[in-house]
Amino acid sequence: ELAQRMAERAVDVVKYFMKQGQMMKPGDVIDADTAELVAVEFGHTVKRVSESDVEEGLFDIQDNPDDLKPRPPVVTIMGHVDHGKTSLLDSIRKANVVSGEAGGITQHIGAYQVEQDGQTITFIDTPGHAAFTAMRARGAQATDIAILVVAADDSVMPQTIESINHAKAAGVPIIVAINKIDKPEANAQKVRTELLQHEVFVESMGGEVQDVEVSAIKGTNLDALLEAIILQAEILELKANPDRTAEGVVVEAKLDKGRGSVATVLVQAGTLKTGDIIVAGNEWGRVRALVNERGQQLKEAGPSTPVEILGLQGTPQAGDRFAVVENEAQAREISEYRQRVAREKAVARQAGQRGSLEQMMSQLQTSGLKEFPLIIKGDVQGSIEAIVAALDKLGTDEVRARVVHSGAGAITESDISLAETSEAAIIGFNVRANKQARDAAEQSGIEIRYYNIIYDLIDDIKAAMSGLLSPER
Ligand code: GDP
């Protein structure tokens, strides 16, 4: 490759190495210093670029505003367990399959599209905020609108509140779907009132959040929900440039026995075509086929279209961003670079370089930020309220604690991913983290601090805020 870039014959480069007493064959790897020496020796001028330049211009290409065209909204369904997220996704899928093929068999590929009044809507087909935060943790924002499902017979529950906080942290507008309205004990008004306490103000309460009463099981009012989405999408004026190389995010990926690595991607800008060479996370490949949720092969996929791609060399992770690159060499170079960065990061994490109170404070100080994000989990609501109130009093003009999320119960994986995306520390008051959460925290280097005396907790936060926190107590 070095020979090629210098427009020399590979054999001459190999000969040069031989003269230096080094046996080399094409494909062997040399370091940058050696490459520079060789290039100079062959009479070329060397310009060193930073290693991360291999990725330059890959993502977030600035489009000319004139090239932007409207694109469908991408919707995620969130809410408490058993409130009907899966049922709602299923009934919407069954009722409105794109292009009049109602009843056609759709496969689960991680996302699907429906049509309402000639408008397309893309649904992320993994309910809950796990997928949502996994994506955000990798720097991708796939969702434009969050549907918050609240069962009318159960009202606002802990994961409802979590979902609200996740959506707010991401700056994604919410539409409330008050579900199970068919049940005799359904009380939609109670849901609306309870949502007020969490700063979700629905229209009938004088706010701007749309709410729709639905029954996922009976199929009641699904049209109204889809119309609410279209209305919200119009307000957002979602646009993308379809006429350029594609970029987007991996929604799901797996290794399929027959088909090799299969990844479902959501195209966010540009148009993805078969034959394109893409980089996705640490992996790369040439797109051999594009398949939609009905198993049909497509030639291309434009903005907001979810599509399965075949042809990747390895399996990327959900939430990885992908982009089309010029050629195989560039794809290889980027994926090698990324794999190395990922390894280095893993090593750094092992050393616990992130998320500790001390480090967060010093970061805050250097960045001039004024807020100190915290997630607080406690055994009972009463003690959480006491802690939040005490933290409020600690705030000064320079710095204050911002409670990103609080709730009763053990520390879970979802808390860890929220901590990751909002760069918060986690406080456990009389509660512990479960096994999965501990593993996730270790992996991502998020610090969890445990307390059983409020005074100690407040003292530590106070100390952290003044940059005086003693290491690990
Ligand atoms: P998820 O955990 O939020 O995905 O909830 P599911 O979709 O799995 O639903 C949980 C339970 O509630 C299931 O037994 C569903 O049949 C039931 N369910 C969901 N939607 C409705 C509804 O609109 N009406 C009634 N009566 N039951 C529902």
UniProtKB/TrEMBL annotation:
Residues 73-221 are annotated as: G-domain. Its main location: cytoplasm. One of its GO terms (cellular component) is cytosol. Residues 70-237 form the Tr-type G domain. It comes from the Bacteria. GO terms for molecular function: GTP binding; GTPase activity; translation initiation factor activity. The keyword Transmembrane helix does not apply. The keyword Metal-binding does not apply. It is found in: Cytoplasm. GTP binds at residues 79-86, 125-129, 179-182. Keywords: Cytoplasm, GTP-binding, Initiation factor, Nucleotide-binding, Protein biosynthesis. Belongs to the TRAFAC class translation factor GTPase superfamily. Classic translation factor GTPase family. IF-2 subfamily. One of the essential components for the initiation of protein synthesis. Protects formylmethionyl-tRNA from spontaneous hydrolysis and promotes its binding to the 30S ribosomal subunits. Also involved in the hydrolysis of GTP during the formation of the 70S ribosomal complex. This is Translation initiation factor IF-2. It comes from Nitratireductor basaltis. The gene is infB.
